[in-house]
Write a structure and sequence with these properties.
It is built from four helices and six strands, in the order βαβββαβαβα. It is α/β, with parallel strands linked by helices. The protein has two domains: about 10-160, Lysozyme-like; about 160-198. Strands 5-1-4-2-3-6 form a six-stranded mixed sheet, with helices on one face. The termini are far apart.
């Protein structure tokens, strides 16, 4: 089931309530799959947020911005963009990389949809929940009050399909093999050099 009935008026910030640095995109997808097995995005994911920001600041897109989300209640899934940061922000803080990525992403989304700075909320401000945690809410409130120049999203947000994830894993494996091969060649050159000196 896909749905293009989202017309964003606000942006809602969430957290995963899991480890900031040890939670994977695929784990979040599995959690959401158990809750909404038939609510698959046009990008092929079950994740209800439009975007997820990993602990290292990598931004991954799970839904198109004009697709109905599955990240809150009260009718807001059809009039918001949901951004989730990996972490449990009642107990830890978002990383600097996450905040920098979030600021760029917010700038781009707000520009595309004409959303004002004061229309960026923590999930708890639109529904009865503690999300996105007290430490993230401090930042959200500060963001709304801060009138500094905008940081606009740079190209590089990654739209990932399940097939692309498999390809990225293969590339990482290949890169590691290339690095190991390079180190082995350097070691061999060093051995040859020492052998000649004898």
């Amino acid at each position: 089931m896909t749905n293009n009935s989202n017309r964003p008026e606000v942006i809602l910030i969430h957290h995963t309530v899991s480890s900031r640095d040890r939670t994977s995109f695929s784990q979040v997808n599995e959690w959401h799959k158990t809750r909404w097995p038939n609510f698959i995005s046009q990008l092929g994911w079950h994740i209800g947020y439009q975007y997820v920001i990993k602990g290292d600041g990598e931004v991954l897109q799970a839904r198109k911005e004009d697709e109905e989300g599955a990240h809150t209640l009260g009718g807001w899934n059809r009039k918001s963009v949901g951004i989730c940061l990996m972490g449990s922000f009642d107990h830890e803080n978002p990383s600097t990389a996450q905040i920098e990525a979030l600021e760029r992403l917010l700038g781009g989304i707000r520009q595309r949809w004409g959303i004002e700075r004061h229309q960026v909320f923590g999930h708890q401000e639109k529904w009865a929940t503690k999300c996105p945690g007290k430490n993230m809410m401090t930042w959200v409130r500060g963001y709304r009050l801060n009138e500094k120049s905008e940081v606009v999203e740079k190209p590089g947000t990654i739209e990932l399909s399940p097939a692309k994830v498999g390809m990225l894993k293969q590339l990482k494996k290949l890169n590691l093999q290339v690095i190991i091969l390079g180190l082995m060649l350097q070691l061999q050159k060093l051995r040859n050099s020492l052998h000649k000196k004898k």
